[in-house]
């Protein structure tokens, strides 16, 4: 039991480091605003969740954002963007994990990832409208966007971006998962 805990802690630390490095390799997509960046840092968190359980995936999301905040900082002085990234990643990882619990197959994993992308896009749109965008304007000390402008930003940028990001991450994860699914199954200490 003690060996298992040590293995889990070391693995979560390693996956968090990989996730942080992947977070640094972010890039914008041309039709979206430059502050919305694509990265593949959720992939190690999904792997952690599949092997060690959902809390491991959440910890990888947390540690990568803490590392990034302390290494790169934040334009607002407080981790509003990092908090948003943590929430989005956590929603994506947990949704994937719990949908996959019901559909244990490669097709089930694809369905879980696509479903998680949709769930994340919807929930992050709501959170951006009510919490995250107002927090940015507050901490940057700039005039608040009007409700129609905020709605326009969420509908035309935030919602489609999160959906596209989730689908891109889905594609990349499935390429990895097809090759590693039997290894992940053998390593799993959390029985799915």
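^ structure tokens above, recovered residues below v
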């Amino acid at each position: 039991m003690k060996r298992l805990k040590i293995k889990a802690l070391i693995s979560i630390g390693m996956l968090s480091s990989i996730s942080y490095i992947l977070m640094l390799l972010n890039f914008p997509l041309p039709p979206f605003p430059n502050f919305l960046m694509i990265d593949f840092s959720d992939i190690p968190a999904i792997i952690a969740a599949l092997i060690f359980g959902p809390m491991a995936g959440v910890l990888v999301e947390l540690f990568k954002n803490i590392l990034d905040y302390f290494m790169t900082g934040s334009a607002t002085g407080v981790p509003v963007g990092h908090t948003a990234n943590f929430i989005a990643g956590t929603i994506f990882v947990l949704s994937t994990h719990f949908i996959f619990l019901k559909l244990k197959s490669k097709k089930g994993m694809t369905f879980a990832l696509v479903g998680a992308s949709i769930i994340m896009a919807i929930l992050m749109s709501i959170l951006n409208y009510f919490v995250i965008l107002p927090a940015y304007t507050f901490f940057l000390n700039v005039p608040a966007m009007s409700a129609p402008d905020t709605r326009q930003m969420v509908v035309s940028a935030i919602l489609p971006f999160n959906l596209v990001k989730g689908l891109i991450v889905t594609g990349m994860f499935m390429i990895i998962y097809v090759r590693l699914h039997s290894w992940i199954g053998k390593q799993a200490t959390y029985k799915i």
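Helices lie at 2-24, 42-52, 54-72, 80-102, 106-140, 147-187.
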